[in-house]
Amino acid sequence: MIEISGVSKSFVLHNQGSAVIPVMQDAAMTVAPGECVALVGASGAGKSTLMRMIYGNYLANAGQIVVGDVDVAQAEPREILALRREVLGYVSQFLRVVPRVATIDVVAEPLLQVGVDGAAARARAEELLRRLNIPERLWSLSPTTFSGGEQQRVNIARGFAHSFPALLLDEPTASLDATNREVVLSLIEDAKARGAAIVGIFHDEAARERVCDREIDVTGFTPGMAA
Ligand SMILES: Nc1ncnc2c1ncn2[C@@H]1O[C@H](COP(=O)(O)OP(=O)(O)OP(=O)(O)O)[C@@H](O)[C@H]1O
């Protein structure tokens, strides 16, 4: 479902004499449907960089990043937007809050985007908000004023609303209480069971061990250290 090969990345620091910082060389990995792979490696090793290249936020300098039938490393912006709408979900720790949009609509929106009808989208959004312990009295309010933990849970509900065939998870359990952490782990297990291919960064080691099938140490892709 996700196939990466020969991927390299350097950053050019235009405001620092165009210094070139090579951060990744010849990265390769494959994630099958139903599998969850954890990216590991020391701070600064390149976990976030690889994740951002898969999502198409950073452009790879070389190689292939095939998600479904799209090579993100070569795709047009329009194709990447379609991929993000239909195929590739991304759950970060932080909600990008849209002012004045009710929480229920924030969560239902990804479903409406793929053509699910309003009532079904709302029902799925309600189910997720309930599961993530967001009190019903908050559903009609914008999450702008919610606590950090509430916003994180709204973001997770939104990220899991559509059954994406591929999912990127960036610290999805960070700063959650034990009950909600458990809910998120069960959402990840459900996604695997329906065949989602998942790549995640988890500093929560117990969470990683529970839901991930394999670990990939990105230190192996550091220039000069490639295996
Ligand atoms: N936009 C950028 N411009 C320049 N350098 C960058 C940029 N993004 C990342 N880097 C560099 O790439 C390297 C890898 O960073 P990255 O954030 O991917 O590491 P990480 O493994 O996710 O670290 P952490 O666990 O601390 O989040 C670092 O040396 C970082 O400084």
Automatic annotation (TrEMBL):
It holds the Pfam family ABC_tran. InterPro entries: AAA+_ATPase (IPR003593), ABC_transporter-like_ATP-bd (IPR003439), ABC_transporter-like_CS (IPR017871), ABC_transpr_LolD-like (IPR015854), CP_lyase_PhnL (IPR012701), P-loop_NTPase (IPR027417). Keywords: ATP-binding, Lyase, Nucleotide-binding. GO terms for cellular component: plasma membrane. SMART domains: AAA. PROSITE patterns: ABC_TRANSPORTER_1, ABC_TRANSPORTER_2. This is Phosphonate C-P lyase system protein PhnL. GO terms for molecular function: ATP binding; ATP hydrolysis activity; lyase activity; transmembrane transporter activity. Residues 2-226 form the ABC transporter domain. SUPFAM superfamilies: P-loop containing nucleoside triphosphate hydrolases.
